[in-house]
Amino acid sequence: MKPTERFKRRYISFSLSLGGKPPAYPEAKEIVHTHFLSFFGEAGISSLAFKLVKYDAPSGRGVLRCERSRVDEAILCMACLSGWKGSPARLEPLSTSGTIKRL
After folding, report:
1. Segment 45-61, tens digit of pLDDT
2. Which class in CATH covers the domain with range 3-97?
3. Where in the chain are the domains?
């Protein structure tokens, strides 16, 4: 694949809390993936080029990757999470960058 045919990546740092505490990595991965899947559907997730890149369980902070032109949609999706399995949950976007190092 030519470099010009690849999608332009953007990285979004976020903070995740479940009932006021940061969840463990497997649960955080399930929360993020299930929420994005229910919001966008399978076709939307493939065009979004969504991926959970990093997650730090003690602090509840992580990094998502998405396609450059769909950053606003990804941030909107993150802000729409209000609960998970009966307990309050919050997925708060913190900053956006073109590289992981700047986050």
Report:
1. 888 888 999 999 999 99
2. alpha beta
3. 3-97
